[in-house]
Amino acid sequence: MAYEGITFRGSRTAQIHKERFLRQNLKSDEVVIQITHSGICGTDLHFMHADIVLGHEGVGVVKEVGESCKTLRVGDRVGWGYTYWSCGRCSACLTGHESYCPTAGKYGAHHLDQGSFGSLAIKPEQWVFRIPDGIESKHAAPLLCGGATVFSPMVEYLKPTDRVGIIGVGGLGHLAIQFAAKMGCDVVAFSSTEVKREDAISLGAREFYATNDVADYTTLNVAKPLDSLIITTGAEHLDFSNYYKLLKPIATVIPLTISFEPMVVPTIPTIANGIKIAGTTPSGILIMIQTLEFAERNNIRPIIQEFPMTEDGIMDAMARLKNGDIRYRAVLSW
């Protein structure tokens, strides 16, 4: 049986092209998904110039399952994220950190002929997740990358008693504020201007500080020092020597955004104060499931803007994302 659907690809000129996806067979461990929604992530902007099908925050309905599939059934509402498969045998997989598997299949490197910008996807059941009933599909899509990206390091590095600084109130930052606050943390938001103060406070931040034109961050009069600092904006542009003034000794700095420029931190304060810099991605199958369940249970939802799943709709959404005009996650819909 042949499986055919619509896809939307990037190109060398960064134009979106509508094409067809065709597969002749279904592997025993795969599921066929009719896509209904897709989030748009900053990573998609990086691949706009590549000749690949875009998108990795997909949500849809299972239309068929392979003969060896064990957990999903036809009609299930499901989604997938950045990682597509892992070996299941290496040390990373065996310790629940499957996305660090050296042979993991990931967006931008594998399954280049299909993505969440389309009408049909065929994915290994292992990395496809059932969407909880209490979360609408349009809200589930951004949680599958953006949500898991912020929640994964929180589970690993934060405690409910922690005072957590979150730099940036955008696509990742507005989710990070919600997840940290619902975990019980004392959340402090930092943004360049005052524009997003009201949003940050309403999402769960107890304090907000605008940093533009502030030469010395000690003059911000931050109430108490921070146990952790989560960076949801471009880390390469940050003045770490200033942010370090707001941290407790042995604090943890967690950069989350992808950048091709180096992140520069002051060497002596990092060593002398025992500052830990933690690289992280959504680390495994379990954390993907936990992200969705925690969001449903605690009423965490992305603030979204919806666009049609068409060439023009995708180009419009991408342009707005590039210009910083999205509040706060773009979602494509059929």
Automatic annotation (TrEMBL):
Alcohol dehydrogenase-like N-terminal domain boundaries: 28-133
PROSITE patterns in the cross-refs: ADH_ZINC, D_2_HYDROXYACID_DH_1
Residue span, Alcohol dehydrogenase-like C-terminal domain: 171-282
Cross-referenced Pfam families: ADH_N, ADH_zinc_N
Regions crossing the membrane: none
Gene3D superfamilies reported in the protein's UniProt record: Medium-chain alcohol dehydrogenases, catalytic domain (3.90.180.10), NAD(P)-binding Rossmann-like Domain (3.40.50.720)
Cofactor field: Zn(2+)
InterPro entries linked to this entry: ADH-like_C, ADH-like_N, ADH_Zn_CS, CAD-like, D-isomer_DH_CS1, GroES-like_sf, NAD(P)-bd_dom_sf
Alphabetized UniProt keyword annotations: Metal-binding, Oxidoreductase, Zinc
SUPFAM superfamilies in alphabetical order: GroES-like, NAD(P)-binding Rossmann-fold domains
Family as reported in the entry's similarity comment: Belongs to the zinc-containing alcohol dehydrogenase family.
Protein name: Chaperonin 10-like protein
